[in-house]
Amino acid sequence: MNEGLILALLLSTASAATPLMLAALGELVTERSGVLNLGVEGMMLVGAVAAFATMSQTGSPLLAFGVAMLSGCALSLLFGVLTLHLMTNQVATGLALTLFGVGLAAFVGQPYVGGVVKGVEPLLFGLDPITLLAFVLCGGLWWFLGKSRAGLLLRAVGEKPAVADAIGYPVRRIRYLAVLFGGAMAGLGGAFLSLVNTPMWVEGMTAGRGWIALALVVFATWRPERVLLGAWLFGGMTVLQFHAQALGLAIPSEFLSMLPYLATIAVLVLICRNPRTILLNQPLSLGKTYHPDR
Fold it and tell me: TM spans, by residue (predicted)?
């Protein structure tokens, strides 16, 4: 294997891992607050089509990424109102949000199907700005959750919301902020797909990456630094299907296309074999409805 091929594999893996990393980090913060949002796939799709439409109309990558994040925030705000104020079931609401996002993205994206835009140029070492941002974000969240007072408060709300509420902390407000951050990151991950990874719009282009991001949070046992490892693992599986022939692997293409999803299932099975492993760092109030006094 020559150096050029190795470099191409590394850059392709970084590109494939970035949307997973962004969406998973956003969902990790959301779940650390005790809220389970299964609408990541829908928010990624809406972010992807919003970014592509904005880029097509304005030609501004910065504005396109900003609109994608705002679109993700809008959907996550809807989820927050339903689950945190109206006390609907978080699992059912998250699934409904995904279905809504898939349909909305398909409707909005009809005029742009098959269209292309100018991709984002590499910034450093062949990496684009969003990939570099994902690395910085991973380190920043490691510090935020483990070292900062605000991060410790977020974790406290996810563990014992009643205790945090009794002390006087605004549980609902903190959870809203976590949910909005998760939506923004999912939207940004979707924008990466339509502007950087493949600068075009195709209906359903997330191809299940939102679900992989959800599994990635469990794989990482709710720790940001492990999200980086898991994203690169799943990203590598995705890239392998495109480089298998160049590597001389005589494997059917149908099997290679299943690799990322088979890897997701295999990792979850291995983790869930040990109940202590799956519960490690999992917020105690995850997915449980709580009605604060204030």
Answer: 62-84, 91-112, 124-145, 176-195, 201-220, 227-249, 255-272
Task: Provide φ and ψ at 205, rounded to 5°.
Answer: -70, -15
CA distances from 137 to 43, 59, 98, 191, 285 (A): 19, 26, 25, 16, 25
Distance CA 290, CA 266 (A): 33
CA 249, 271, 183, 18 torsion-angle sign? negative
pLDDT of amino acid 99: 95
- Using the structure block, give the residue that is written with the tokens 């109102």: 81
For 162-182, give the DSSP string.
Answer: HHHHHHT--HHHHHHHHHHHH
The pLDDT, as a whole number, for residue 242 is 66
Q: What does the pLDDT look like over 195-248, one tens digit per residue?
A: 998 888 888 899 889 998 998 898 888 999 889 888 888 887 777 766 665 566
Cα–Cα nearest to 104, from 75, 82, 83: 75
Record the pTM: 0.89
Domain range 3-279, CATH architecture: Orthogonal Bundle (1.10)
| Domain map (residue ranges) of the chain | 3-279
Report yes or no: 39 and 98 within 8 Å, Cβ to Cβ.
yes
Q: What is the per-residue pLDDT for 254?
A: 65
